[in-house]
Design a protein that fits this description.
This protein is α/β, with parallel strands linked by helices. Helix content is 24%, strand content 15%. It has 8 helices and 10 strands. The strands form 3 sheets. Strands 7-6-8-9-10 form a 5-stranded parallel beta sheet. A 3-stranded antiparallel beta sheet has the order 2-3-5.
Protein backbone atom coordinates (compact mmCIF):
# COMPACT_ATOMS: atom_id res chain seq x y z
CA UNK A 1 0.00 0.00 0.00
CA UNK A 2 2.79 2.42 0.91
CA UNK A 3 4.46 1.75 -2.42
CA UNK A 4 1.24 2.62 -4.26
CA UNK A 5 0.86 5.85 -2.29
CA UNK A 6 4.50 6.79 -2.94
CA UNK A 7 4.08 6.18 -6.68
CA UNK A 8 0.93 8.29 -6.77
CA UNK A 9 2.74 11.17 -5.07
CA UNK A 10 5.61 10.87 -7.55
CA UNK A 11 3.23 11.05 -10.49
CA UNK A 12 1.46 14.12 -9.17
CA UNK A 13 -1.67 15.63 -10.78
CA UNK A 14 -2.11 14.00 -14.16
CA UNK A 15 -5.47 15.38 -15.34
CA UNK A 16 -4.93 17.75 -18.26
CA UNK A 17 -5.46 21.47 -17.80
CA UNK A 18 -8.05 21.70 -20.57
CA UNK A 19 -10.57 23.29 -20.49
CA UNK A 20 -9.32 25.69 -17.84
CA UNK A 21 -5.98 25.80 -19.63
CA UNK A 22 -4.75 25.07 -23.16
CA UNK A 23 -5.50 21.80 -24.88
CA UNK A 24 -2.70 19.24 -24.79
CA UNK A 25 -0.25 19.27 -27.67
CA UNK A 26 -1.28 16.67 -30.21
CA UNK A 27 1.38 14.54 -31.94
CA UNK A 28 2.75 15.56 -35.33
CA UNK A 29 1.10 12.56 -36.96
CA UNK A 30 -2.36 13.72 -35.85
CA UNK A 31 -4.63 14.55 -38.79
CA UNK A 32 -7.43 16.97 -38.04
CA UNK A 33 -9.52 19.33 -40.15
CA UNK A 34 -8.50 19.01 -43.83
CA UNK A 35 -6.72 21.82 -45.62
CA UNK A 36 -8.08 22.50 -49.11
CA UNK A 37 -6.07 24.99 -51.17
CA UNK A 38 -8.48 25.73 -54.00
CA UNK A 39 -5.92 27.95 -55.74
CA UNK A 40 -3.77 24.89 -56.42
CA UNK A 41 -6.63 23.03 -58.07
CA UNK A 42 -7.92 25.37 -60.79
CA UNK A 43 -8.35 22.69 -63.43
CA UNK A 44 -9.89 20.05 -61.21
CA UNK A 45 -7.68 17.07 -62.08
CA UNK A 46 -9.78 14.81 -59.79
CA UNK A 47 -6.81 12.65 -58.76
CA UNK A 48 -7.77 13.01 -55.12
CA UNK A 49 -11.38 12.13 -55.92
CA UNK A 50 -10.32 8.88 -57.56
CA UNK A 51 -7.93 8.01 -54.73
CA UNK A 52 -10.42 8.40 -51.87
CA UNK A 53 -11.45 4.93 -50.60
CA UNK A 54 -14.84 6.10 -49.30
CA UNK A 55 -15.85 8.65 -51.98
CA UNK A 56 -15.57 11.39 -49.39
CA UNK A 57 -14.09 13.91 -51.85
CA UNK A 58 -16.05 15.51 -54.67
CA UNK A 59 -15.13 18.08 -57.29
CA UNK A 60 -17.75 20.71 -58.07
CA UNK A 61 -17.54 23.47 -60.66
CA UNK A 62 -16.34 25.85 -57.97
CA UNK A 63 -14.33 23.88 -55.44
CA UNK A 64 -13.22 20.65 -53.86
CA UNK A 65 -15.43 19.32 -51.10
CA UNK A 66 -14.75 16.76 -48.37
CA UNK A 67 -17.55 14.94 -46.60
CA UNK A 68 -16.07 14.67 -43.12
CA UNK A 69 -18.74 12.13 -42.26
CA UNK A 70 -17.26 9.73 -44.81
CA UNK A 71 -13.62 10.76 -44.51
CA UNK A 72 -11.22 8.25 -42.91
CA UNK A 73 -8.54 10.93 -42.46
CA UNK A 74 -6.09 8.75 -44.34
CA UNK A 75 -3.49 10.32 -46.62
CA UNK A 76 -4.54 8.74 -49.93
CA UNK A 77 -5.93 12.03 -51.26
CA UNK A 78 -2.90 14.01 -50.12
CA UNK A 79 -0.50 11.56 -51.72
CA UNK A 80 -2.48 11.46 -54.98
CA UNK A 81 -2.71 15.24 -55.46
CA UNK A 82 0.13 16.37 -57.77
CA UNK A 83 -0.25 20.03 -56.74
CA UNK A 84 -0.41 19.62 -52.97
CA UNK A 85 -3.91 21.08 -52.79
CA UNK A 86 -5.03 18.68 -50.05
CA UNK A 87 -3.56 18.33 -46.57
CA UNK A 88 -4.50 18.03 -42.93
CA UNK A 89 -4.24 20.49 -40.06
CA UNK A 90 -3.90 19.72 -36.35
CA UNK A 91 -7.30 21.27 -35.58
CA UNK A 92 -9.28 18.77 -33.49
CA UNK A 93 -12.74 20.49 -33.16
CA UNK A 94 -14.80 18.67 -35.81
CA UNK A 95 -18.16 17.75 -34.25
CA UNK A 96 -21.32 19.22 -35.77
CA UNK A 97 -25.02 19.30 -34.97
CA UNK A 98 -26.19 18.67 -38.53
CA UNK A 99 -25.11 16.15 -41.14
CA UNK A 100 -24.89 18.80 -43.86
CA UNK A 101 -22.38 20.80 -41.82
CA UNK A 102 -19.88 17.98 -42.33
CA UNK A 103 -19.60 18.90 -46.03
CA UNK A 104 -16.39 20.92 -45.92
CA UNK A 105 -15.04 23.07 -48.74
CA UNK A 106 -12.28 24.95 -46.95
CA UNK A 107 -14.43 27.56 -45.25
CA UNK A 108 -14.90 27.74 -41.51
CA UNK A 109 -16.56 24.61 -40.17
CA UNK A 110 -19.98 25.08 -38.56
CA UNK A 111 -19.28 23.38 -35.24
CA UNK A 112 -21.85 21.79 -32.95
CA UNK A 113 -24.41 23.97 -31.22
CA UNK A 114 -25.76 23.51 -27.72
CA UNK A 115 -28.94 21.57 -27.04
CA UNK A 116 -32.16 23.52 -26.81
CA UNK A 117 -32.78 25.31 -23.52
CA UNK A 118 -35.26 22.77 -22.14
CA UNK A 119 -33.02 19.77 -22.82
CA UNK A 120 -29.92 21.63 -21.68
CA UNK A 121 -31.58 22.39 -18.37
CA UNK A 122 -32.01 18.64 -17.85
CA UNK A 123 -28.62 17.41 -19.06
CA UNK A 124 -26.29 20.42 -18.73
CA UNK A 125 -24.92 19.42 -15.32
CA UNK A 126 -25.36 15.64 -15.46
CA UNK A 127 -25.40 13.53 -18.61
CA UNK A 128 -25.53 9.74 -18.46
CA UNK A 129 -24.79 7.87 -21.68
CA UNK A 130 -25.15 4.25 -22.72
CA UNK A 131 -22.46 3.35 -25.27
CA UNK A 132 -23.54 1.01 -28.06
CA UNK A 133 -20.96 -0.63 -30.31
CA UNK A 134 -23.02 -1.61 -33.33
CA UNK A 135 -20.41 -3.56 -35.25
CA UNK A 136 -17.42 -1.29 -34.62
CA UNK A 137 -13.79 -2.35 -34.99
CA UNK A 138 -13.01 -1.14 -31.44
CA UNK A 139 -11.10 1.91 -32.67
CA UNK A 140 -13.78 4.47 -31.79
CA UNK A 141 -14.71 2.46 -28.73
CA UNK A 142 -11.13 2.63 -27.45
CA UNK A 143 -10.92 6.39 -27.86
CA UNK A 144 -14.25 6.79 -26.07
CA UNK A 145 -12.92 4.67 -23.21
CA UNK A 146 -9.82 6.89 -22.99
CA UNK A 147 -12.07 9.75 -21.86
CA UNK A 148 -12.65 7.88 -18.61
CA UNK A 149 -8.95 7.82 -17.72
CA UNK A 150 -7.36 10.16 -15.22
CA UNK A 151 -5.87 12.26 -18.04
CA UNK A 152 -9.26 13.35 -19.43
CA UNK A 153 -11.45 12.62 -16.39
CA UNK A 154 -14.78 12.90 -18.21
CA UNK A 155 -16.66 12.61 -14.92
CA UNK A 156 -15.54 16.10 -13.84
CA UNK A 157 -17.98 17.46 -16.44
CA UNK A 158 -20.85 15.41 -15.07
CA UNK A 159 -20.71 13.03 -18.06
CA UNK A 160 -20.70 9.33 -17.25
CA UNK A 161 -21.31 6.04 -19.04
CA UNK A 162 -23.86 3.71 -17.52
CA UNK A 163 -24.52 0.00 -17.93
CA UNK A 164 -28.26 0.15 -18.59
CA UNK A 165 -30.19 2.28 -21.12
CA UNK A 166 -32.87 2.68 -18.44
CA UNK A 167 -30.35 4.70 -16.43
CA UNK A 168 -29.21 6.74 -19.45
CA UNK A 169 -30.10 10.13 -20.88
CA UNK A 170 -28.99 9.11 -24.35
CA UNK A 171 -26.87 6.86 -26.53
CA UNK A 172 -23.33 7.20 -27.83
CA UNK A 173 -23.14 4.95 -30.89
CA UNK A 174 -20.15 3.56 -32.76
CA UNK A 175 -19.97 1.17 -35.69
CA UNK A 176 -21.81 0.95 -39.05
CA UNK A 177 -24.94 -0.65 -37.51
CA UNK A 178 -24.65 -4.22 -38.74
CA UNK A 179 -27.78 -6.22 -39.46
CA UNK A 180 -27.22 -8.28 -36.33
CA UNK A 181 -27.05 -5.12 -34.18
CA UNK A 182 -29.80 -2.97 -35.68
CA UNK A 183 -32.67 -4.46 -33.67
CA UNK A 184 -30.59 -4.39 -30.49
CA UNK A 185 -29.82 -0.71 -31.11
CA UNK A 186 -33.47 0.13 -31.70
CA UNK A 187 -34.51 -1.69 -28.52
CA UNK A 188 -31.78 0.07 -26.54
CA UNK A 189 -32.97 3.44 -27.83
CA UNK A 190 -36.56 2.59 -26.93
CA UNK A 191 -35.48 1.74 -23.38
CA UNK A 192 -34.06 5.24 -22.79
CA UNK A 193 -36.59 7.60 -21.24
CA UNK A 194 -37.54 10.73 -23.16
CA UNK A 195 -36.23 13.29 -23.72
CA UNK A 196 -33.05 11.61 -24.95
CA UNK A 197 -30.12 12.37 -27.20
CA UNK A 198 -28.12 10.40 -29.75
CA UNK A 199 -24.42 10.88 -30.50
CA UNK A 200 -22.85 9.26 -33.57
CA UNK A 201 -19.10 8.80 -33.12
CA UNK A 202 -16.84 7.92 -36.05
CA UNK A 203 -17.21 7.57 -39.80
CA UNK A 204 -18.90 4.18 -39.46
CA UNK A 205 -21.67 5.48 -37.22
CA UNK A 206 -22.18 8.54 -39.42
CA UNK A 207 -22.05 7.02 -42.90
CA UNK A 208 -20.90 3.40 -42.77
CA UNK A 209 -17.27 4.45 -43.20
CA UNK A 210 -15.24 1.92 -45.20
CA UNK A 211 -18.19 -0.48 -45.05
CA UNK A 212 -20.66 1.87 -46.76
CA UNK A 213 -22.64 0.09 -49.47
CA UNK A 214 -22.09 -3.40 -48.10
CA UNK A 215 -25.32 -5.39 -47.61
CA UNK A 216 -24.66 -6.49 -44.03
CA UNK A 217 -24.70 -3.01 -42.50
CA UNK A 218 -27.02 -0.01 -42.45
CA UNK A 219 -24.64 2.79 -43.41
CA UNK A 220 -24.63 4.35 -39.97
CA UNK A 221 -27.28 5.72 -37.64
CA UNK A 222 -28.76 8.17 -40.13
CA UNK A 223 -32.31 7.16 -41.02
CA UNK A 224 -32.57 4.82 -38.03
CA UNK A 225 -32.45 7.22 -35.10
CA UNK A 226 -32.45 11.03 -34.81
CA UNK A 227 -28.90 12.32 -34.25
CA UNK A 228 -28.00 15.28 -32.05
CA UNK A 229 -24.21 15.22 -32.45
CA UNK A 230 -21.94 14.00 -35.23
CA UNK A 231 -18.30 13.33 -34.30
CA UNK A 232 -16.28 12.47 -37.46
CA UNK A 233 -13.02 10.54 -37.56
CA UNK A 234 -11.63 7.06 -38.02
CA UNK A 235 -11.37 6.99 -35.11
CA UNK A 236 -11.92 10.50 -33.77
CA UNK A 237 -9.29 11.66 -31.30
CA UNK A 238 -10.50 11.77 -27.65
CA UNK A 239 -10.08 15.56 -27.80
CA UNK A 240 -12.46 15.69 -30.76
CA UNK A 241 -15.05 13.65 -28.86
CA UNK A 242 -14.63 15.71 -25.70
CA UNK A 243 -14.87 18.98 -27.61
CA UNK A 244 -18.12 17.84 -29.24
CA UNK A 245 -19.66 16.76 -25.94
CA UNK A 246 -18.78 20.06 -24.26
CA UNK A 247 -20.21 22.05 -27.15
CA UNK A 248 -23.42 20.01 -26.98
CA UNK A 249 -23.74 20.90 -23.29
CA UNK A 250 -22.83 24.56 -23.85
CA UNK A 251 -19.73 24.18 -21.72
CA UNK A 252 -17.28 25.92 -24.07
CA UNK A 253 -16.83 29.69 -23.99
CA UNK A 254 -16.28 31.93 -26.99
CA UNK A 255 -12.52 31.38 -26.82
CA UNK A 256 -12.75 27.59 -26.65
CA UNK A 257 -12.42 27.36 -22.86
CA UNK A 258 -15.11 25.42 -21.06
CA UNK A 259 -17.38 27.19 -18.65
CA UNK A 260 -18.48 26.02 -15.24
CA UNK A 261 -21.59 23.83 -14.94
CA UNK A 262 -24.78 25.85 -15.16
Amino acid sequence: MFQAIRERLNQGHRTMAFPDGPAPALPDRFRGLPILDQSKCPGGCSECVSACPTDAISQTADALQVDLGRCLFCTDCMEACPEGAVGFSNSYPLATSRREDLIFSGRELELAKALNAKTLKLFGRSLKLRQVSAGGCNGCESDVNVLNTVVFDLGRFGIKFVASPRHADGLLITGPITKNMRLALEKTYAAVATPKIVIAVGACAISGGPFAGLPDQSGGVEGILPIDLYVPGCPPHPMTILDGLLRLLDRLGSHGAASSPK
